[in-house]
């Protein structure tokens, strides 16, 4: 049936009916069309709103396993003010809610691992703070910058007593072994030295982290409350915003 004839037929059916009857008929006949149309309008509205309100990210950090999710928003706002980030135009993202376990590896742990990998690959993550076991895991994956390459001479001297080191020679040897050994025969990741803060026993010590001992800011935002291990800060090696990451380190270590 042609559309014109169909319209005529519907008009004849509605002839002489009350407004309420017409409305009921319309709903019965066009219910699916109406729902689909409203969904399209709603989806388009969200898309347009996101396009209009979308902001670039000026800084992005993860404070992992800190359980500071209740204060995340205030944390972000405070650092944005400290760093001079205009939050009307830019995002300042400090994730204090994420958790990750190397032992359980649940679906949530796997999802976080994939997310971090994607952020690193797309230059979307600038700074990373975590408890020592997880920091070691990512340090051995060479996710962090050598502090000799990112800190000024003055900053280097200031933070050197708190450096976290990895032994580049040990990691290179392990990676070489893994290339020549089938997956099922590979050993677990090296446990590292007993004291990553003491590089004397290492063949090729590389400073990649800074211990945040007694950080007033982490305490203020209730991060790592009640946790004995000292968190460690690292500069993500794919970041293009090292200046802001240095400011973040300065912020976290301020008295």
Descriptive overview:
The chain has 255 residues and is an alpha/beta fold. The chain has two domains: 3-51, no CATH class; 56-252, D-Maltodextrin-Binding Protein, domain 2. It is 48% helix and 13% strand. It has helices spanning 3-14, 19-53, 72-83, 107-121, 132-140, 147-150, 153-159, 168-180, 216-220, 242-252, and strands at 56-63, 90-95, 127-130, 163-167, 205-211, 232-235. A six-stranded mixed beta sheet has the order 2-1-3-6-5-4, sandwiched between helices. Strand 1, helix 3 (72-83) and strand 2 form a beta-alpha-beta unit. The chain is elongated and about 95 Å long. It starts with a helix and ends with a helix.
Secondary structure: elements and pairs:
Elements: H1 3-14, H2 19-53, E1 56-63, H3 72-83, E2 90-95, H4 107-121, E3 127-130, H5 132-140, H6 147-150, H7 153-159, E4 163-167, H8 168-180, E5 205-211, H9 216-220, E6 232-235, H10 242-252
Parallel strand pairs: 1-2, 1-3
Antiparallel strand pairs: 3-6, 4-5, 5-6
By DSSP, the count of extended strands is 6
What is the level 1 CATH name of the largest domain?
Alpha Beta
Radius of gyration, in Å, reads 28 Å
Q: Tell me, what's the shape?
A: elongated
Question: What is the CATH fold-level name of the largest domain?
Answer: D-Maltodextrin-Binding Protein, domain 2
Biggest sheet strand order reads 2-1-3-6-5-4
CATH-defined superfamily of the largest domain:
Periplasmic binding protein-like II
Q: H/E element string?
A: HHEHEHEHHHEHEHEH
Number of domains: 2
User: Helical element count?
Assistant: 10
Pairing-aware structural class of the strands and helices?
A: alpha/beta
Helical proportion, percent range: 40-55%
Distance between the termini: 80 Å
Low-confidence stretches: 46-52, 185-193
Q: Main beta sheet: strand number and arrangement?
A: 6 strands, mixed
Average pLDDT level = 83
Percentage of residues in strands: 5-15%
């Amino acid at each position: 049936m042609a559309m014109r004839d169909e319209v005529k037929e519907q008009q004849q059916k509605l002839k002489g009916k009350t407004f309420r009857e017409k409305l009921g008929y319309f709903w019965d006949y066009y219910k699916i069309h109406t729902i689909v149309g409203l969904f399209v309008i709603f989806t388009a509205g969200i898309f347009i709103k996101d396009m209009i309100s979308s902001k670039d990210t000026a800084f992005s950090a993860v404070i992992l396993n800190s359980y500071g999710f209740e204060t995340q928003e205030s944390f972000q706002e405070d650092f944005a003010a400290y760093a001079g980030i205009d939050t009307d135009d830019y995002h300042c993202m400090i994730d204090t809610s994420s958790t990750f376990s190397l032992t359980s590896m649940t679906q949530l742990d796997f999802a976080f691992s994939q997310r971090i990998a994607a952020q690193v690959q797309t230059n979307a993550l600038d700074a990373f703070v975590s408890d020592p076991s997880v920091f070691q895991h990512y340090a051995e994956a060479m996710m962090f910058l050598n502090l000799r390459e990112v800190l000024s001479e003055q900053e280097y001297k200031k933070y050197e007593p708190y450096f976290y080191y990895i032994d580049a020679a040990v990691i290179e040897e392990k990676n070489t072994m893994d290339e020549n050994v089938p997956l099922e025969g590979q050993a677990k990741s090296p446990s590292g030295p007993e004291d990553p803060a003491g590089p004397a026993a290492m063949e090729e010590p590389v400073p990649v982290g800074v211990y945040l001992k007694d950080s007033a800011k982490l305490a203020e935002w209730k991060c790592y409350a009640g946790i004995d291990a000292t968190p460690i800060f690292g500069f993500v090696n794919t970041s293009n915003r090292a200046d802001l990451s240095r400011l973040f380190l300065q912020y976290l270590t301020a008295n």
